[in-house]
Amino acid sequence: MKVFSLMVVWLLTAQALGAVTPHQAARLGKDLTPMGAEKAGNAAGTIPAWMGGISQPINGYEPGDFHADPYDKDKTRAIVNVKNWQRYEKYLTPGQIALLKKFPSYSLHVYPSRRSAAYPQFVYDAVKNNAVSAKLLKYGTGVSDTIMSSPFPIPQTGAEVMWNHTLRYRGLRWEYTSSSVYSSSAGDQSVVTRDYKYFWAYSQPGVTLDEIDNKIFYLKHKTIAPASMAGSMILVHETLDQVRSPRKAWIYSTGQRRVRRTPNLSYNSIDTTTNGIRTIDQADMFNGAPNLYNWKLIGKAEKFVPYNAYKLHQQGLQVEDIAGKRHINPTLARYELHRVWVVEANLRVGMTHVYHKRRFYFDEDSWQIVSLEEYDEEGELIRHSEAHVINYYDIPMVFSTLKVSYDLEEGRYFADGLNNERAPINTDVDFKRREFTATGLRREAR
């Protein structure tokens, strides 16, 4: 009876949510930014008002360049370390505190807060339309009557905030080469390099949910180094409602020399590309169906979060410049005080996952998850992850240039997004959705 009652309450809650009134939506672009953040700064003056962000490339930028740091003249306001973290405790997440305690060499270099987030006007228009039309599906497994970008700019629940991250605008097409690094508890490191292609179906101009056939995006990546792994490929069709239509994925292994469907690229499955540090649903900080958890909206908080990480993004840095034995190089990371939405996910009765509780911190200006913690069944904090974001101002949009996940039990970590020795994300590409098929994967594997 108790389980049934919980299900009824959860279902009624999920069904009662969604679109806001036109009167509420009229706040977008007024006291709220077009994406739904508070436009005003904070009372202390330590978080500025949003003044439009960086809406066009800065002087000197040429297409294909790495994004130069528009704030390179800023000076650090504080360096938080194991000796002084208590002074800044209210601005730190539990994951950051755990990392400071575990590694005395780790620190947070805090800079002035710069609300650089910006998006194209057509994204702002879509978000405003979504605000009065988007609805959360039963059990929160998907959304309807939405397109292009985040569906709930004035969220009422934790599930809505999570969908804002999942469906945030990330451009139209991507192509890039990037490396990831795994650092063991002994400090031994291995580097893997892959080619990536993304087709963002949900954000294509003029499309409807029916036309994209429940797909958010298509992804194909191919390993190019080390030689022992070169040639292996993965193809993913990322679905919106993954309970109704689960994610589709295919793998090509050079050892088996065949393309096969993989049914377990979701949820609690171990992400083997991270040496087991992440589960599949930790990619992009969180992905996939949210139905294993009850999502609680804690509210807003002011936290030091990785932001405007242009030093980490700069051209020419080598892997060893960024990836230390225990953690990334703290002198390259930039933290700022920002308002974040805090959402807690607790495992539902009868569901199974290695993480029984997860706490997420969403940048209010972009809906990007910038920090998270994960807890085991005993309530122990075992993982801490951060997304070091920049404004890709040639588009513009906010996205991570580096993501890092720390295993707090074993003292190891995984970082991906290391493209400094190659080229930034290329958005000036023209491949089509039909290129992301199992047949195309087989053809490429020949």
Search tags:
outer membrane lipoprotein receptor (LolB), chain A; 13-stranded antiparallel sheet; two-stranded antiparallel sheet; 8 helices; globular; alpha+beta; 446 residues; disordered N terminus
What is the secondary structure topology, with strand pairs?
Blueprint lengths: L1 H14 L6 H4 L52 E3 L13 H9 L5 E3 L10 H13 L1 E2 L6 E2 L13 H9 L6 E11 L5 E11 L15 E11 L7 E7 L8 E6 L4 E4 L31 E14 L3 H4 L5 H4 L12 E13 L9 E7 L5 E7 L5 E11 L6 E10 L4 E7 L19 H8 L1
Antiparallel strand pairs: 1-2, 3-4, 5-6, 5-17, 6-7, 7-8, 8-9, 9-10, 11-12, 12-13, 13-14, 14-15, 15-16, 16-17
Task: Write a compact overview of the structure shown.
The chain has 446 residues and is α+β, with helices and mostly antiparallel strands. The protein is built from eight helices and 17 strands.
Helical/strand content category: alpha+beta
Specify the number of helices: 8
Distance between the termini: 57 Å
Radius of gyration: 21 Å
The proportion of strand residues reads: 25-35%
- According to CATH, what is the class? Mainly Beta
**Secondary-structure element order, N to C:** HHEHEHEEHEEEEEEEHHEEEEEEH
Architecture (CATH level 2) name: Clam
Give me the count of strands. 17
Give an overview in words.
A 13-stranded antiparallel β-sheet has the order 10-9-8-7-6-5-17-16-15-14-13-12-11, with helices on both faces. Strands 1-2 form a two-stranded antiparallel sheet. It has helices spanning 2-15, 22-25, 94-102, 121-133, 158-166, 310-313, 319-322, 438-445, and strands at 78-80, 108-110, 135-136, 143-144, 173-183, 189-199, 215-225, 233-239, 248-253, 258-261, 293-306, 335-347, 357-363, 369-375, 381-391, 398-407, 412-418. The chain has one domain (2-445): Lipoprotein localisation LolA/LolB/LppX (outer membrane lipoprotein receptor (LolB), chain A, Clam). The model is unreliable at 1-16 (pLDDT under 50). The protein is built from eight helices and 17 strands. By secondary structure, the chain is an alpha+beta fold. Helix content is 15%, strand content 29%.
